Amino acid sequence: MPNVAAIAPLAPSDQPIRWFDTCVPAGFPSPALDHMEQRISLDELLGIQAPHTYLVRVSGDSMSGIGLYDGDVLVVNRALKAGHGDIVVACVNGEVFVKRLQKRQARIVLVSENPRYAPRYIMEGDELLIWGVVRNSIRWYASSDRSQA
């Protein structure tokens, strides 16, 4: 069963948003925040390289150990070469997964970040396609419906 669902490819955006170049404390807000405004594009902030970047939604809890949860949206760059330790969207024999890519000696292993799930060793004869490297994740905290994204 796939644990990612395609959402859409990303196109370049020409709409910058406000950026306050300061850390926001999780306590009392700083009065200096009113004076720190700049403009930044989400393309720049998220390292989006359209048309090589697309979005997928996570399904399940196999990557919860690194903070990727059911329903999170992943920003995936298919132009990057996947290396040892990268979080990737991979297709193995037609099944699509989001996993950590590991190279152990001459073997390739797709590792979950939840101890309840066993590693997936790529065996001789398996077809492995790396569909991209996960660069960012997006999570909703508001109680509004996420289906609009």
Question: How does this model look, in words?
Answer:
Helices cover 3% and strands 40% of the residues. The chain is mostly beta strands and 149 residues long. It has a single domain, classed as Umud Fragment, subunit A. The two termini are 23 Å apart. InterPro entries: LexA-like, LexA/Signal_pep-like_sf, LexA_repressor, Peptidase_S24_LexA, Peptidase_S24_S26A/B/C. Keywords: Autocatalytic cleavage, DNA damage, DNA repair, Hydrolase, SOS response. GO terms for molecular function: DNA binding; hydrolase activity.
Question: Secondary-structure map with pairings?
Answer:
Layout: E1 4-9, E2 17-20, E3 37-40, H1 42-46, E4 53-58, E5 73-77, E6 87-92, E7 95-104, E8 107-111, E9 120-121, E10 128-138
Antiparallel strand pairs: 1-4, 2-3, 4-5, 5-10, 6-7, 6-10, 7-8, 8-9
Query: From the helix content, strand content and strand pairing, which structural class follows?
Result: mainly beta
Residue-averaged pLDDT: 81
| Domains, number | 1
Q: What's the name of the CATH homologous superfamily?
A: Umud Fragment, subunit A
Report, as a whole number of angstroms, the end-to-end distance.
23 Å
Unreliable segments of 5+ consecutive residues: none
Tally of alpha and pi helices? 1
- Taken from the alpha-carbon principal axes, the silhouette is globular
Helical amount: under 10%
Question: What sequence of helices (H) and strands (E) makes up the elements?
Answer: EEEHEEEEEEE
The CATH architecture would be Ribbon
In the CATH scheme, the class would be: Mainly Beta
Major β-sheet strand ordering: 1-4-5-10-6-7-8-9
Instruction: Count the E strands.
Output: 10
**In angstroms, what is the radius of gyration?**
18 Å
Largest sheet: 8 strands, antiparallel
Would you tell me which CATH topology applies?
A: Umud Fragment, subunit A
Into which percentage range does the β-strand content fall? Answer: 35-45%
Protein name: DNA polymerase V
Organism: Halopseudomonas yangmingensis
GO molecular function: DNA binding; hydrolase activity
Keywords: Autocatalytic cleavage, DNA damage, DNA repair, Hydrolase, SOS response
